[in-house]
Structures are given as structure tokens and as C-alpha cells.
Amino acid sequence: MFETTGLHIASWVIGIILFFAAYALHKQGNAKGSKITHMILRLFYVFIIGTGAALFIFHSSMDAALYGVKFLLGILVVGFMEMVLVRTKKGKPTQVLWILLVLALLGTIYLGFRLPIGYNFFG
Ligand code: HEM
């Protein structure tokens, strides 16, 4: 169950949806809805990192360096999502963090699909 990528993919897909939902609810002035969504998102951070770490433990011996980069990028995506939400709620600028989030997310998805386990869209 934790050796294949299904649960990991489900975790980050739901996580990304929750991230945008929490952001949109905040922008619409629904502070309570945004707070609850953000709390559920934080639970999904645990699922994303947990399922990712399990995949890493099972498979990283195939290519330790690239799996290490995948691990770091994945953690960065979670970190940038959290920073964007917290800074948005505080009314602080988030432009740079959005750029970093998009770059880290694209890099993580590319590398994940490139690495040997699961889908291999990029060869
Ligand atoms: C939101 C953050 C993340 C996204 C968008 C993401 C995305 C992906 C994608 C697209 C795959 C490929 C699935 C497949 O080929 O079937 C994958 C696999 C993987 N992810 Fe993540 N991931 C994230 C976070 C993490 C974290 C935090 C870790 C480590 C703690 C991690 C470790 C791994 C590992 C080890 C694999 C297996 C690589 C392989 O395909 O061989 N990921 N991830």
C-alpha cells in the first residue's frame, strides 16, 4: 500500500485543492471557512510527507541522489504552501513565495513522474 504511489498522489492532489480552497475562502472574507480548510490542509501535509517518506524508504536505493532531491523539493512545496497562506492572512507580500511555490511544484511533479516508481511520463 505504501510501496506504490497511489496514496501519495491522492494526498498531494487533495492537498493542493485544499490549499487553493483555503486561499479563495480567505480572499472572499470567509475567515472561519479558511481557517478550518487550512487545518485540514495541515493534516494532509502529514499524509503527503508520510507517504513520500515511505516511498523514499522503500525505493531511494535505486537512485539516492535524485530521490534525495525529490524529498527536499516535496518538503519545500509544503513549506511554500504554508508560508503563502500564513503571509496572505497577515496581509504581507507573497509574490516571491508564489513564484517559488510554482517552481518547486513543477520541479517536484516533473521529478516524481521521471523517477522509476509509478507513472513515468517523462521517460
Ligand atoms: C505537494 C508536494 C508533493 C508533490 C506535488 C509530489 C509529487 C509526486 C509525484 C508526481 C510523484 C510521482 C508518482 C508516480 O510516478 O506515480 C511522486 C513520487 C514520490 N514522491 Fe512526491 N510529491 C510531493 C511531496 C513529497 C514529499 C514531501 C516527499 C518526501 C518526504 C516525496 C517523496 C516522493 C517519493 C520518494 C516518490 C517516488 C518517486 C518515484 O516515482 O520513483 N514527495 N511525488
UniProtKB/TrEMBL annotation:
Keyword Amino-acid biosynthesis part of the UniProt annotation: no
One Pfam family linked to the record: DUF1516
Keywords: Cell membrane, Membrane, Transmembrane, Transmembrane helix
Predominant place of localization: membrane
Membrane-spanning residues: 6-25, 37-58, 64-85, 97-117
Domain of life: Bacteria
One cellular component (GO) term of this entry: plasma membrane
Compartments reported by the entry: Cell membrane
Annotated membrane topology: Multi-pass membrane protein
Claim: Transcription regulation is one of the keywords in the record: no
Annotated family: Belongs to the UPF0344 family.
HAMAP family: UPF0344
Protein name per its UniProtKB record: UPF0344 protein KR50_15390
Species this chain originates from: Jeotgalibacillus campisalis
